[in-house]
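Sequence design from tokenized structure. All designs in this work follow the same two-part layout: the structure record, then the generated sequence. An example of the structure record is given first.
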């Protein structure tokens, strides 16, 4: 049984159809224009909600003593994960995103 080389299966796209020339001339006319005139972006409702949460929330200051205590507990093997609290927080976060 003969094995066909991969190169014989692939056929490159046809060139010279005018598509490349149309695209390149269109790009030349768009240079120097503001992005708002060239392209429009639409955000999904989920991304809009995330952006609102990001702008509305203020980052609390870092409690360095608490971080040090957590690191020590993890290193000692005494840190215990509160899975119910994590699940509740995840649920609350999701409810805030998708009411």
């Amino acid at each position: 049984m003969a094995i066909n080389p991969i190169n014989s299966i692939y056929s490159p796209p046809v060139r010279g159809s005018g598509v490349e020339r149309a695209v390149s001339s269109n790009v030349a006319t768009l240079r120097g224009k503001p992005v708002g005139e060239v392209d429009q972006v639409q955000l999904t409702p989920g991304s809009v909600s995330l952006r609102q949460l990001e702008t509305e929330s203020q980052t609390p200051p870092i409690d360095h003593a608490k971080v040090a205590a957590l690191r020590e507990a993890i290193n000692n093997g005494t840190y215990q994960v509160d899975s119910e609290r994590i699940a509740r927080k995840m649920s609350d976060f999701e409810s805030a995103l998708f009411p």
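The longest helix spans residues 83-97. We note this feature because it recurs in several other targets discussed in the main text.
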